[in-house]
Amino acid sequence: MNLPDLSFLSRNEAPRDPVPAHRDAAAAPAGAAHGPDANHGGGEGWRAKGPQAELIEQLRAAQRELQIQNQELLYSQQAAESASERFEALFSGVPLSLMVLDEHDMVVQANAMAHRSFQPTELDRPLTSLMPFVSDSDADRVHRAFASARVHGRSDTSEVVFQIGSDRRMTGDLHIAYIETQQGSGTPLRQFLCAVIDQGPLLAERQTLQQRNEQLHAGERRLEAVINSALDAIVCVDQHQRITVFNPTAAALFQCPTRDALGSPLSRFFPDLERAPAYAQLTTQVAMGEMHARTATGRLLAVEVNMAFEHHEGNLTTTVFARDLTARKRAEKRRQELEVQLRESQKMQAVGTMAGGIAHDFNNILHAILGNVELAKADAATPNTDARVLESLREIDKAARRARDLVRQILAFSRDEARQRHAVQLTDLMRETERLVRVTLPKNILFEVQTPARLPLILADATQVEQALLNLCTNAVQALGTRLGQVRMRAQVLRLEPRLRERLHLSEATCVALDVADDGPGMDAQTRARIFEPFFTTKPVGQGTGLGLPVVHGVMRTHGGAIDVRSAPGKGCCFTLYFPLADVDAEPQDLSRPAPLLSAAEMAAPADARKPCVMYVDDDEALVFLVQRLLGRRSCEVCGFTDPQAALAALARQPDRYDLMITDYNMPSFSGVQLLRAARAIRADLPVALASGYITAEIEQAALDEGARALIHKPNDVQELCRTVDRLLHGGD
Predict the structure, then answer these.
(1) Radius of gyration (Cα) for the chain, nearest Å?
(2) Residue 596: predicted pLDDT
(3) How far is 206 from 400, CA to CA, in rounded Å?
(4) Are 409 and 545 in contact (CB under 8 A)?
(5) Average confidence (pLDDT) over 326-340
(6) Interatomic CA distance for residues 543 and 477, integer angstroms
(7) What's the Cα-to-Cα distance from 30 to each of 3, 45, 53, 63, 64, rounded to whole Å?
(8) Domain boundary assignment for the chain
(9) 217: helix, coil or strand?
(10) Cβ 171 vs Cβ 160: under 8 Å
(11) Which CATH superfamily includes the segment(s) 230-324?
C-alpha cells in the first residue's frame, strides 16, 4: 500500500539542517521525487518547525497506525480465506454425510458423502430437503431434535431410519448444530448444520457381537446345565486351590450346600489331592483312580477321581471329577452275595437232583420197613412175647422214622418251587409250635412265648412257617442241652431302618418280626458265617443233619422275607424272622386241624358186607406184599401187581370188580400217570390214587389233571394209608 505525500505542507519553509541523502530517500514516500517541488532548492533537505511540524508528525503516526491496521486486515482476510478453503475442503472431504439446512428444511449445501448416501442413483429422490427421507416412525423425534437445537444450540438423535428409495434403508445417528449469522442490521441468517453418521456397519457388527454373546451365553447355560445334571461330582478350583464350582451332585455327595462349599479349600473334601496340581506342569488330564474323599460331616467316601487342568492368562484352573463308588461297591458286594447264593442254589440243585433220584427207591424201602414193623408189633403184642423183641421193633421203627424225616428234610430243602401262600395269623402258628415243642421239652428248660393280642396278617404257607419255627426252637433246645436255660419266642411289628432293610434286601419298611432266642453257649463269627450252609453242623455225629437252618433260610427266601442272627460266645443266640405283611383286606386262613376221618370202629367193615377190592400196582414186590397184609387186616381184598400192563389187562377183563386203584408213580416201563389215564379210559368212575416217594408240584398237577382222587406220600404211617383208602372207598374226595 502506498503512503500519501505530505511534503507540500512544508514547501515555503527553508530547511535549517541539511538532511542526508540516504535519510531523505528512506523517509520520502515512493514517487516524491516526481512531485511539483522536486527541483526546488529546499526540497527534502529542510524540516518544518512549529505547529506545522507537530501536525506532520501526528499525520505520519496516524499513517503508520493505518498501515499496521491495513496489514492486520490483510492478514485477517488471508486467514479467513484460508479457513474458508479449509472448511470447504473438510466439508467436502469428511467421510460423513454433512448438510446445511435453512429454517424451512431446505438443503443449502451438502457434501459428496451426503449425496452418495441419500441419492446413490439419478433415479432416487434428490437431496433438496431432509425430512422426506426420515421414516414415519422417527419423524417426531427428528422434529423435536431440531427444536431442541434451536434452543440449546445442538442436539443428537440416535438410530434414525432414513428411507433411501423404495428398497433401501439407512440407520444413522443425526447430529444437529444451530448456526445464526448476523447480516448487518437486517434479520440474522438461521441455519442448521446436520451430520448423519451411518450406523449400518456398527449395527451389523453390534448384531454380530450380540449373536456371539447370545451364543456364548447359550453355551454357558448348556455347560451349566451339563455340570448341574452330571452324575459325577464336578469341583473346580482356582490357582489358590479355592473352590469356584460345586455342582449339585457334589453337594449331595459331600452333604454340603453349594454356597457353603464355594471358597473352601479343595483339601476340605479331597485330603489326598494336595499335591495333585503338580501334574498340571506335565499334562492336561490325569486319572487319579480310586481314593477316599470326606463329606462335610467327616464321613469317608470311596470315589474314583479324574482331573483336568486349564491354563488361561497365567492362571490355572483345576477341574476334579469324582464318581461315587458306594453304589458300585454295594453292587459288587451284592454280586458276591448273589454268586454265593448261586453256588448254594447250584449245590441245592445237585442235592435236589440226587434226592429226587434216590428218594423214590429209598422211601419204598422205608415204607416197607415201617409197615412191616407195624405188623410185627401188632403180631408180637401178646403176653408171652419177649419184651426185648418189642424193644427191638421200637428201635427199628425209631430208626426208620429218623431216616424218613431226613429224606423229607432233604426234599424240602432242595425243592425250589412256588408254594401257595395265604394270609395267616402268626400267633396261631406260634401257639401250634409251642404245643409241639412242649411235648418233648426237657424239665431243665423254660419255654416262654410272648405275643401281642393281635398281629397284622402275613402272607405265608402255614406248613412251611411251622416247620421253620419248629426247627429254630429245636435248635435252641438242643443248644442248651442239659444245662438250665430259657428259650423265648416273641413276635412284634417293626419299622425297619434303611440300613437294615438294605442289608437284608427287604422291599417293605414295615414287617412282622419273630425272635427265637436262647441263653445257650452262643456262636463265634466263623460259625455264624456258615450256619446256613447245607450239611454244616456243630452237633456230634448222628445228632444233626445240618439242614435245619438252611431249610429255615429257604423258607424265608421263598416268602420274600429274611432271617438274621445275633450271637456271641457265652451270650446265647437270637434268630429273627422278618415277614412281609399281607393286604389289609385279606381274609385269614383257617388253621384248625381236621378231625380224623374215621374212628377205629368205623374202619372195621360189617361182617356181612362185601369186602372192597383194591388194585395195588407197584414195581416193588416188598411194598405189594406189605399193602396186601395191611389192607387185608382192614377187611379189604387186595390184588397186587408188579406189572402195570398185567394190571390193565385184569381191569379190562373185570372192570366192575375193583373199587379202588392205587398205583406207584415211578415205574420203569409205564408211569403212574399213564396207567391212570389208561385205567380211566376203561372205567371212568374208578377212584384212582397216586403214590410216590417224591412228589413235586408238576407231578401233583399232572395227576390231578388226569383225575387222581388222592396223592399218597411214601413212606407214610399205616393209619394214614388206611384212612386214605377208606376215604376213597366211601366216596370221599
Answers:
(1) 62
(2) 38
(3) 101
(4) yes
(5) 81
(6) 13
(7) 8, 16, 21, 14, 15
(8) 1-93, 94-198, 230-324, 342-410, 419-580, 600-729
(9) helix
(10) yes
(11) PAS domain (3.30.450.20)
